[in-house]
Amino acid sequence: MRTRDLKMQIGKNGLTPSFLEQLKHEFERENLIKVSILKSATRDKEHAKEIADKILSELGEKFTGKLIGYVLTLQKWRRVKEK
Hints:
alpha+beta, 4 strands, 83 residues
């Protein structure tokens, strides 16, 4: 396991299926990934929240995320987190 944070970016193409596949692939090696939503993707807080919700729904129940500004911090857990 690496000790550095992996950072990914969502740009003008928005949230694409290839981005989601790459994110899932990176979670095979990482437990924590930060996703930056660039200015070219959106500068609307509600749209950024929708992007974060869609990413979390695509990843599944073993993942949690926190959106601060335009940076989404995603974490993978060993077990399903209780709500």
